């Protein structure tokens, strides 16, 4: 069999070649994740534009549902493009993925609103999200493997960490572009049509990415395998029949990807959703906070990658996961206290209780034409306002704050706007603050610090992963074997996180309850990681693990 070590040893890549490999791979990955994340970044506009219902909670859940659909198709893309990457080569496969992503993203910016074309609008959105998911399923594995197969062994963790930092880079770029558009376009016009500009910009980013990646040569490892006739006949099948590979895939899915993806999406998207939604912080402030905290956090991915070249890939992941279990709930509680102290303090001092018969809320009632109970309507309004509540059984519907009744007007039960205004007005008398929050410098710095802590936890569990996964799998099925567990984990465990967490919040009435999903996935993942991740600092890419 052609030895990768021998191939790499023929000639050490020059600094210029390494910079081109890392730069082109990372830039393309940044652009591709930008394309994917811009949808989530603008969720507060996407909802009423394509999924208008008059129900804020349902609109947000529908946005996260279509966000999850894209993630749901990532494993399919991983299988398809993993097959092509192991058969045809790394370079041309990720040229196809970045092209598909760019076209699909620009398409979202061209879709008329649901008010204009009705049901066709959300259906087109779903179709384009599927294309994005397919493209993303092939991108990460290609870029990570391409860099890993060019990198010298002693620097593999550091060089591949640029790919990990590129994921955060795509998120930061999406925030930065939105900020620039908000600065250049008046607010009303941005909400009407200006939000489409970040989507259409992906065409320019696609051109830049293709220009850079076309300069690259095929991976020397793949070239040698192809010349020796050692490429896999069926990479997908062999991923599950190759000796020991089932265990590697299991560990990669639950002990690596499950941890990193839930921490990442909790840090960035759950934080964003909490600040924009229940805490009612104005959008510009949230964008600025996320931009600077994400920008600073990117550097920690590189630090962790370099650290892993010395201590191994396992230690950073275990440390980051254990710290996440300890700091997850305190961090988000701190975000709430800093972002909207009036709401947080009132919720603790004045408990809200809802009493009624078989009282529960159905977040998807309107979507499936189910009748929402009167009690469910009240709960739904409290959830949208970010107010935690307790439930008790009773013969009649009753809402109390601190033991004092807030009389429910019958009009509230038929008019959602009147219900929202009435309940908010009633609770405002007890110190609940539903106004847009204008944060002081100290609060902003505190929130940035907390998000930075969460970003560091993400870097610890993510920074060394590209090198680790490349080292875990044999070269002839590496693209497929690495992509399948990564995108199943990221697609389902992580991609469905905003939807699942939002649903848990909607059913429980506790704005922090959705964090339990992350906590459980990470806790299970730590056990698998401790058992299954190799402890040695590094491994030659030609070794069969």
From TrEMBL:
Q: Which domain of life is it from?
A: Bacteria
Query: Where does it live in the cell?
Result: Cell membrane
What is the predominant subcellular site recorded for this chain? membrane
GO terms, molecular function: transmembrane transporter activity
* Transmembrane portions of the chain: 20-46, 61-85, 92-111, 117-138, 159-185, 197-216, 249-268, 288-305, 317-335, 439-463, 484-505, 511-533
Q: Which GO terms describe its cellular component?
A: plasma membrane
**Domain Major facilitator superfamily (MFS) profile residues, every copy:** 21-537
Q: How does it sit in the membrane?
A: Multi-pass membrane protein
- Source organism of this protein record: Parasphingorhabdus halotolerans
- Please report the name of this protein according to its UniProt entry: MHS family MFS transporter
Keyword annotations: Cell membrane, Membrane, Transmembrane, Transmembrane helix, Transport
Entries under PROSITE patterns matching the protein: MFS (PS50850), SUGAR_TRANSPORT_1 (PS00216), SUGAR_TRANSPORT_2 (PS00217)
Q: Which SUPFAM superfamilies match?
A: MFS general substrate transporter
């Amino acid at each position: 069999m052609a030895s990768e070590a021998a191939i790499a040893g023929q000639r050490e890549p020059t600094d210029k070649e390494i910079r081109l490999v890392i730069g082109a791979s990372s830039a393309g990955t940044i652009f591709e994740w930008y394309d994917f994340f811009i949808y989530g970044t603008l969720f507060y506009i996407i909802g009423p534009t394509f999924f208008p219902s008059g129900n804020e909670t349902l609109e947000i859940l529908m946005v996260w549902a279509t966000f999850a659909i894209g993630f749901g198709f990532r494993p399919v893309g991983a299988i398809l493009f993993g097959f092509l990457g192991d058969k045809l080569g790394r370079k041309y496969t990720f040229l196809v993925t970045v092209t598909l992503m760019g076209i699909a993203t620009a398409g979202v910016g061209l879709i008329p609103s649901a008010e204009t074309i009705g049901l066709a609008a959300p259906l087109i959105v779903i179709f384009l999200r599927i294309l994005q998911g397919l493209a993303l399923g092939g991108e990460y594995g290609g870029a990570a493997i391409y860099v890993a197969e060019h990198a010298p062994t002693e620097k593999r963790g550091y060089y591949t960490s640029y790919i990990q930092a590129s994921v955060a880079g795509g998120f930061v770029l999406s925030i930065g572009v939105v900020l620039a558009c908000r600065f250049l376009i008046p607010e009303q016009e941005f909400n009407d049509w200006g939000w489409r500009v970040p989507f259409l910009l992906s065409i320019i980013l696609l051109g830049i990415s293709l220009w850079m990646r076309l300069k690259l040569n095929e991976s020397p490892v793949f070239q040698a395998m192809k010349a020796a006739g050692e490429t896999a006949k069926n990479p997908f099948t062999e991923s599950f029949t190759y000796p020991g590979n089932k265990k590697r895939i299991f560990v990669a899915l639950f002990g690596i990807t499950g941890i990193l993806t839930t921490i990442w999406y909790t840090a960035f998207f759950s934080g964003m959703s909490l600040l924009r939604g229940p805490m009612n912080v104005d959008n510009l402030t949230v964008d600025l906070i996320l931009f600077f905290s994400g920008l600073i956090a990117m550097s920690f991915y590189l630090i962790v990658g370099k650290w892993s070249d010395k201590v191994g890939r396992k230690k950073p992941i275990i440390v980051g996961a254990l710290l996440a279990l300890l700091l997850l709930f305190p961090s988000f509680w701190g975000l709430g206290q800093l972002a909207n102290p009036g709401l947080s303090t009132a919720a603790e001092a004045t408990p809200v209780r809802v009493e009624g018969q078989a009282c529960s809320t159905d977040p998807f009632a309107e979507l499936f034409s189910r009748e929402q109970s009167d009690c469910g309507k009240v709960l739904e309004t409290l959830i949208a306002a970010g107010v935690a509540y307790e439930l008790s059984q009773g013969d009649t519907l009753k809402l109390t704050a601190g033991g004092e009744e807030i009389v429910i007007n019958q009009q509230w039960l038929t008019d959602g706007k009147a219900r929202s205004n009435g309940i908010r007005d009633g609770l405002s008398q007890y110190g609940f603050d539903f106004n847009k929050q204008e944060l002081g410098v100290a609060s902003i710095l505190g929130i940035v610090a907390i998000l930075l802590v969460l970003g560091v936890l993400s870097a610890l569990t993510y920074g060394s992963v590209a090198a680790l996964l490349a080292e875990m799998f044999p070269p002839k099925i590496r693209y497929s074997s690495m992509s399948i567990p990564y995108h199943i984990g990221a697609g389902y465990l992580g991609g469905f996180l905003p939807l699942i967490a939002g649903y848990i919040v909607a059913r429980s009435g506790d704005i922090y309850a959705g964090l339990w999903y992350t906590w459980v996935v990470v806790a299970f993942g730590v056990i698998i990681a401790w058992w299954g991740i190799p402890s040695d600092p590094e491994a030659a890419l030609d070794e069969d693990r």
